[in-house]
Design goal:
mainly alpha; 69% helix; single chain; flat
Length: 150
Amino acid sequence: MTIQERRAAVLAILFGAAVVSYTIATLQVGSVRKPGPGMFPAVCGAGIVAVAGFWLAGSLKRKAGSSPFWTKGSWKVPLIAVFLMLVYTATMERLGYTLSTLVFLVVWQSLIEREPWVKTMIVSALACLFMYLIFVYLLRVSVPKGFVGF
């Protein structure tokens, strides 16, 4: 593990701790039987801290090497990913959750992952359906319907 990866692990720990602290300070966490609006962010923040802590602890056992954080041209994919997420966020209200998520996943699979079209369509449709079922039926979250009505 490089020094940069160790720094990233420490930043992830700090980010997770900040999420947990903010959630506890501003939202009601509730209990396991009756969770409040802050329960999910608090659990996610604690999970980030735990995973990053294990990552950092494992890396301290190995000797740190040195390598460049960005190789030539490797910044393009993260830039495209951030752009896609911004467009996805900006279009969700107008297109609706289902259509915007499906389009986002298809574009992500083809531009970022560079998967074949058949696999892209199958994975995107199943992931969109799976996330819809989780949010709408399991978590009972109201998702944007958009102009197509779903």
